[in-house]
Amino acid sequence: MHPLVAPGELSATLAEGAVVVLDVRWRLDRPDGRPEYLVAHLPGAVYVSLDAELAAHGLPATEGRHPLPDIADLQAAARRWGIRPGDTVVAYDDLGGMSAARAWWLLRHAGLEDVRVLDGGLAAWREAGLPLEAGEVVPEPGDVTLEYGAMPVLDADAAAELAVTGVLLDARAGERYRGEVEPVDPRAGHIPGAVSLPTAGNLRPDGRMRSPDELRRRAAEAGIDAGAVGVYCGSGVTAAHEVLALEVAGVRAALYPGSWSAWSNDPARPVATG
Predict the structure, then answer these.
(1) Whole-number Å distance between alpha carbons of 244 and 257
(2) Does domain 4-127 have CATH number 3.40.250.10?
(3) 233 noted as active-site residue
(4) Where are the domains of the chain?
């Protein structure tokens, strides 16, 4: 199942009433996207709180800033969003898919097969001249059953090993990877052996995903061949977007959910810079 959907394709599917749309607007500097959602959102879209529904709240040293939610909590949320077995689910945001990809990855990991991200997000929808609506959407509750295990996952030890035996990608901005700045976490730098591949480079200037060929070339330049690949970022959110981009390129990658927030909080973990 292709993980992206174009605005025109989604509009046609919405007309058939066969899709659940999730508004996952979130930014590190403005984590609550509900006010913007209430002003204007895709028809029928349900607001999803990344901090409250797509993450748990654990110990930073072991789980990071955005650990995976308990499967029972995610299932309860998915039912609130109206998801039923066999539904098509589309997530979008206003950040080039950076936060919507978290919903995509979590629901895929939890066993849903047809989950996609709106390519270009809200900006692409508006550019296509498609309608928006205001106010809260409260759908009829769903009855989906979820279980983790469908997507590959790394813990800290597996990430450290993969940095030596395969390719471990650091999806953060280059200056954070190099250790020149660290605005959020306690130590600056990267996991030793990790390769810098900022997720922002997966997008075209208009915020849409680059073509599969472009993404494959980018992956090859990072040293990705037929071996194992893993991804981390600051707290496991934008790393999901890197996994999404690699999926478009035909590469299955594992996610390290704890990411740099967990690694840098553990004084026993080494840090590389440069």
Answers:
(1) 14
(2) yes
(3) yes
(4) 4-127, 156-265
